[in-house]
Design brief:
The complex is a heterodimer of chains A (559) and B (243). Chain A is mainly alpha-helical and 559 residues long. Chain A contains 16 helices and no strands. In chain A, α12 runs antiparallel to α14. A two-stranded antiparallel sheet of chain B has the order 1-2. In chain B, a hairpin with a 2-residue loop joins β1 and β2. In chain B, α2 packs across α7. The model of chain B has no long low-confidence stretch (mean pLDDT 93). Classes of the chains: A mainly alpha (559), B mainly alpha (243).
């Protein structure tokens, strides 16, 4: 490095979306239509729900330290896991990557000034907040004990907890998701800059297109389903209540018609994040671009055809179960396409171990375990044995936490310099990524074994022979918590004190890196024109990279 | 985002803006199809399980009001289409006229629906503790056709022998009746609000051959709501009309 001339200290741009004022302080945030500011509003609000869900998870793990339960009564335990699920799934995981990073990045990545419908974008945040208030009201006035799945007739007749406000809140929140998906699809269709053809779009955008398809096609169904369940509870109707002639299995079909694809709302955007990080830190074009793009769409489509694999033990027809089992196996194909393409991208790449890359590699490992154990569960014979055990709990946490949250935190690290204009300490953040990986595995791997040995999920107690594995899991959870608290603190610190990043610190090839960090309110001084292929480092004189010369090392914050 | 004339700042051209708005409305309608789809599925499953109760429930509906309302709604779709056409060819006065006509017909539809709901209330056919499938034939109201009621009574008596829980299953029919028509009516009310907004714009002469996207996309919405009714009418009113 001794022969490189010292680079001048970078400075933040004079004018950017964070300091542009359209009014006085708080008003300029609450009435903003800037997709970047709305993304930050979402970032703050999903963090609140992540924190609530995290505290509840901590209580669950503390309770399970002893076989008899260490902390709460059985009734309270039911409420803990229900509220943990509701907060995390509906109010953190589903909006997390799309509404925060998708919102911030899609217009930047396709060279647009904003989303197609900026006001609807702001509206969707308000809908989220209103829905969230209803749910918090439910949590604080009696709680919720039905499980996040709201199975009837428990939720519609027998539960003595505050089901009605929770159902109303989730119903309302659904429209936030629908409007976000609608906005993304229209934006991707009509707002692309000149030269930004479909197959030049970043894979992150493809992933969000697929996610949006699931959002607009699935969410209305769960909305009407929860509406019916809510009406059933409020007015003693019988849609799903067998005592009145209704069909509780119908509720499960309708519920999973959304809630299975909802898993792809969580994981597809994370896959999009990984598809951006891997080529950047392997310094080479992504392998099999079209296949990764197509596999996102394939996952979204097949994802709609597998829902009844949640219902193998409800007595559904064996032939239906066979079909759903087979279709569930099919999801493995596009998922594997992605994993193989990412690893092929790494092959002979010039890999640097920067924090986003560590998260991305962690994602691949955890997603592979989560995905393969999904195949165990799709297997008709084996599912009877491990249905509703901790095996299922471990499996979906590997996908949702090991996959989606790992992608979310990795993505935050990757685009943080773009969002705030500043870098964070490199060693500390790498350490945090490793802590997250270790803590996660220690928390959830024992649960696979527990489930296989027969420990059922959602029980407040367990036989003494399961204690060692449960204690391991709780110990892991405390390491995992550190893995989340560390980034929360140094990222917050870096907003003020981090080293200035410059427009393209890694460097990466996407359009979002061609504008200032933080970007202007209008995103670009002039509408960019795209003349290059995606993830191409070689033919990009516009990035300031000399042809043939090695790429500069990623910039990083002071340690 | 600032706005120059009718062009919002995030767009480059009016054409792009129109394409986005239209695509947005079509996607919204797709979500609506799925939203109503859950109800239609619930209806289908229950009707196949309890066809007798659903048939009796269906026959208590007033077919004249239902059919009349169907005509009113189809007429309103015609006037809506004519409003869009008038805007496209620049006949500003006609736009206002047809929008007001659409709103008028929509209001008539909602009024008739209210009358029908009131009848159900009088007949003890609102799901809940007072619900009784036998009440209507035992307590004729002025204007009821006694011959029909006698038939209905016979039918209910026969059905009860086979299905002692018919009151529960009849309630499922009426829960769905109120759920589906109620949700449809709610969409009509939202549509009426949108029409009021359009009428305000059209009195101000806002819609021209160059710029008429709002009229067009509200038109799409209005036609969609009509189509939902085109399905609801036979499914709720016509399933067992053989006598």
């Amino acid at each position: 490095m001794s022969n490189t001339p010292p680079t001048p200290e970078l400075e933040l741009p004079d004018k950017h979306y964070l300091n542009a004022t359209y009014g006085s302080g708080i008003r300029s945030w609450l009435l903003t239509t800037d997709h970047k500011r709305i993304a930050l509003l979402y970032l703050a609000s999903v963090t609140v729900f992540f924190f609530i869900g995290g505290v509840l998870a901590t209580m669950i793990r503390i309770h399970l330290l002893t076989p008899g339960g260490a902390l709460v009564t059985p009734e309270t335990y039911n409420k803990l896991f229900t509220m943990h699920g509701v907060a995390m799934i509906f109010f953190f995981l589903i909006p997390s990557i799309p509404a925060v990073m998708g919102n911030f990045l899609i217009p930047l990545m396709i060279g647009a000034k904003d989303l197609a419908f900026p006001k609807i974008n702001l509206l969707s945040w308000y809908i989220y907040v209103i829905g969230g208030c209803f749910v918090l009201y439910s949590f604080s006035t009696g709680g919720l004990d039905t499980g996040w799945t709201f199975y009837t007739p428990l939720s519609s007749v027998y539960s003595n907890s505050a089901v009605t406000p929770a159902v109303i809140g989730i119903f309302i929140n659904g429209f936030s998701s629908i409007l976000t998906g609608l906005n993304f699809i229209v934006t991707i269709h009509t707002m692309r800059a000149p030269g930004m053809t479909w197959f030049r779009m970043p894979l992150f955008v493809w992933a969000h297109y697929a996610t949006s398809l699931v959002m607009i096609l699935g969410t209305p169904v769960v909305a009407i389903t929860l509406l019916l369940a809510g009406l059933e509870r409020m007015f003693h109707l019988g849609f799903f209540n067998p005592a009145l002639g209704g069909d509780p299995i119908l509720f499960q079909h309708l519920f999973w018609f959304y809630s299975h694809p909802a898993v792809y709302i969580m994981i597809l955007p994370a896959m999009g994040v990984i598809s951006e990080i891997i080529p950047t830190f392997a310094r080479k074009p992504i392998f099999g671009y079209a296949f990764i793009a197509g596999s996102s769409i394939a996952i979204a489509v097949i994802g709609f055809l597998v829902w009844a694999h949640h219902m193998f033990v409800t007595g559904e027809s064996t032939y239906a179960a066979l079909a759903f089992s087979f279709l569930s196996y099919l999801v493995a194909i596009p998922s594997a396409v992605k994993v193989f393409n990412w690893t092929s991208t790494l092959y002979k790449g010039s890999i640097s171990w920067d924090p986003p890359m560590v998260y991305a590699l962690g994602f691949i490992g955890l997603f592979v375990i989560g995905g393969l154990t999904g195949l165990f569960l799709a297997c008709l014979g084996l599912d009877i044995h491990i249905h509703d055990t901790y095996f299922v709990v471990a499996h979906f946490h590997y996908i949702m936490v090991g996959g989606a949250v790992m992608g979310y935190v990795g993505g935050l690290h990757f685009w943080w310099p773009k969002i705030t204009g500043r870098l964070y300490p490199r060693s500390l953040s790498r350490f945090a990524a490793v802590i997250l990986f270790i803590g996660f595995n220690l928390t959830f791997f024992p649960q696979f074994i527990l489930g296989y040995l027969g420990m059922p999920r959602r029980y407040h107690t367990y036989p003494p022979e399961f204690q060692v594995l449960n204690v391991l899991s709780t110990a892991g959870a405390s390491i995992l918590a550190l893995g989340y608290l560390l980034p929360m603190s140094y990222l917050t610190w870096s907003m003020r004190y981090g080293k200035v990043a410059g427009p393209n610190p890694w460097p990466a090839t996407g359009l979002e890196w061609k504008t200032d960090s933080p970007p202007l309110t209008e995103n670009f001084e002039v509408t960019p024109e795209v003349t290059w292929e995606p993830y191409d480092f070689k033919n990009r004189p516009d990035l300031g990279l000399a042809t043939g010369a090695p790429l500069p090392a990623p910039a990083h914050g002071d340690d | 985002m600032h706005r120059t004339g009718e062009l919002y700042g995030q767009f480059e051209t009016l054409g792009q803006q129109k394409e986005s708005a239209t695509l947005g409305m079509w996607i919204f309608l797709v979500t609506e199809v799925l939203f109503f789809g859950g109800l239609f599925l619930t209806y289908t499953i229950n009707r196949s399980a309890f066809s007798t109760a659903f048939g009796i429930g269906s026959n208590t509906l007033d077919i004249k009001l239902g059919a009349g309302n169907t005509v009113v709604l189809i007429m309103s779709s015609l006037t809506m289409a004519l409003a869009v056409w008038s805007a496209q060819v620049g006949k500003k006065k006609l736009v206002s006229f047809f929008l007001v006509a659409t709103l008028g017909l929509g209001t008539v539809f909602l009024g008739v629906k209210a009358v029908e709901y009131k009848q159900k209330y009088d007949h003890h056919l609102i799901p809940g503790h007072g619900f009784d499938m036998r009440y209507r034939s035992a307590h004729p109201l002025p204007g009821d056709n006694l011959k029909d009621l006698a038939l209905e009574k016979e039918e209910v008596e026969k059905a009860i022998v086979k299905d002692p829980d018919i009151n529960y299953h009849g309630q499922l029919y009426f829960s769905l009746y109120f759920g589906m028509t109620g949700l449809h009516a709610l969409h009509m009310i939202v549509g009426a609000g949108l029409l009021l907004w359009l009428i305000k714009g059209s009195f101000a002469g806002r819609y021209t051959p160059q710029y008429n996207t709002p009229v067009e996309i509200v038109g799409l919405y209005w036609h969609f709501v009509d189509i939902v009714w085109i399905y609801l009418f036979p499914l709720l009113y016509l399933i067992d009309r053989h006598h």
